[in-house]
């Protein structure tokens, strides 16, 4: 493997989401994603400066964990009403 291939693999396997992409994934606005980060409901990584210059990134695994934490019942129970 070359360095280019290794970097490409790292980027595709470990890519962080920006607030716009995360918002689209869960059907909310980027402002709401930033709100979830500021309240501690969603883990975010600040890759910018502090304060108004903050640039948040979200690990897809953290977004998945947040989605699971918001579920009201396991998916396999939906439709088992006979």
What does this structure look like?
This protein is mostly helical and 82 residues long. The chain has a single domain, classed as Multidrug-efflux Transporter Regulator, Chain: A, Domain 2 (Orthogonal Bundle). It has 4 helices and 3 strands. The chain has a 3-stranded antiparallel beta sheet. The chain is elongated, with a radius of gyration of 16 Å. The N and C termini lie far apart (55 Å).
List descriptors.
3-stranded antiparallel beta sheet; 4 helices; Multidrug-efflux Transporter Regulator, Chain: A, Domain 2; 82 residues; mainly alpha
Instruction: Please state the overall shape, judged from the principal axes of the Cα atoms.
Output: elongated
- The total of beta strands comes to 3
Percent of residues in helices: 40-55%
Question: Mean pLDDT, as a whole number?
Answer: 82
Secondary-structure arrangement, i.e. CATH architecture: Orthogonal Bundle
The strands making up the biggest β-sheet line up spatially as 1-3-2
- Rg, Å, rounded: 16 Å
Q: What's the helix count?
A: 4
State the order of secondary-structure elements, H for helix, E for strand: HEHHEEH
Tell me about the largest β-sheet.
Answer: 3 strands, antiparallel
Query: Termini, distance in Å?
Result: 55 Å
Estimated structural class:
mainly alpha
